[in-house]
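Predict both folds.
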Amino acid sequence: MTTRIKTAFKPWPGKMTARERFLRQMNFQSFDRSFNMEFGYWDDNFTEWKLFRDNHITCNEEADEFFQFDPIRCIGANVWLSPPFEHKVMERRGNTNILQNGDGLLAEVPADGHATIPHYLQSSIVTPDDWKRCKEERMNRHSPERVPDVAALRKQHPNDRTYPLGIWCGSMIGKIRDILTFEGLAYACCDYPDMVEDMVETCCRLVEDSLDRLLPHFQFDYAAGWEDICFKNGPLVTVGFFRDIIMPRYKRIRKKLDQYGIELWYMDCDGDVRPILPYFLEGGVNCLFPFEVMGCAHPGELLDQYRGQLRIMGGVDKIQLASGRPAIRKYLDTLVPYVERGGYIPFCDHRCPPNVPEEDYLYYLELKQEMFGLK
């Protein structure tokens, strides 16, 4: 950011640096207070919440600084389409635009630009010939755009930093779901299983290349990935597919992380992850983020079931945040033993929606400090 955000908020007091606190809390060791972070806010919050409007807060990065959350950073190389498809409007249909996004999908979106989930109409990749062409044009492992500027990154993130730094481990199947669409992935797993596995293998090799280029030059504190392949009824792929095709690639990545002492690897995967959680853990992914409660379970359920193995970041039910102050306090009360145990950092279980009154959100932040801050 070029200018510092003016804020009336103060960081939670503490006896450790953010880096020390994060590492100790997530590794079940003693810590001074909970790591204080949030996952962010819907775009609508920045126009609907007076607090944000009055203080000219327009994005999640500015909000993090405004609320003085503990800093946490993540870096990585380019592990996806390079170059991406051109993002452009293809045609106008009444009150909607048909656009092509960076993954080559045709999507129907509101012409007025308000935030909503796009209605996807068509994928650029359907057959093995489509994938062969895309792989040659946009998934070249040796493209110069995939080589990170290590010197610049080291200058930005020195080893004596006071905040945790993660390394990006990409996606083995979530981005493939994005590029094929949910329906397209379902058909492709049946019609072209070799194509899908080659897509997974290509994603894995790109991540491995990235790790080889970055791991020797930094002292990373965690690894991060993104899948989003679950919804309220479970995974979008079969458990067998995940076990046999995805998990072996996780094991390859875990082997590289272990060589550099990186214990924590979180995966951003919404929905009910329980059917595939044993294979996340066996593959080396040991933390869930941001852990949606309504689509899965109370975080304590899984932290108890996989005690000592699983960590969770998130898990504060956004439904309760919108249900009034008694509901907020009642829910946070249920999290106290898990914060105290370690391996758990509480924050809203996805982007905080605008139906949460800003006064109640401020109450939630104050209550978090009261319950999980320095004693």
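Second protein follows, with its predicted structure tokens after the sequence.
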Amino acid sequence: MAAEEDPSRRQFVRKLLLGATLAPLAMVRMNTSRAADLPLLSPDDPEAKKVKYIEDASSQKSATKGNTCATCALYEGAYKSAQGPCQLFPGKHVKAAGWCSAWAPQL
């Protein structure tokens, strides 16, 4: 009976490993749900104008073919998503098909 009341070291380690495994997964889910609520960046926003942000890269002469927000190193959106967060505009989403003068190649 005494062994059932006092958890063993193995049980403690199992629970610790389970908690250490599940904690990061819970944080990812929380961050993802918050990211979905971000507003879309307007090209008329003063920050967007500083870097010449546009929502459609094909309409910009300065943008090389294939250079879009989705292919930029600063873009943090999910693969093949229509929009996502950008490191330049914290708290806002940008269009994946967009472009700005701060475009950087992904490494």
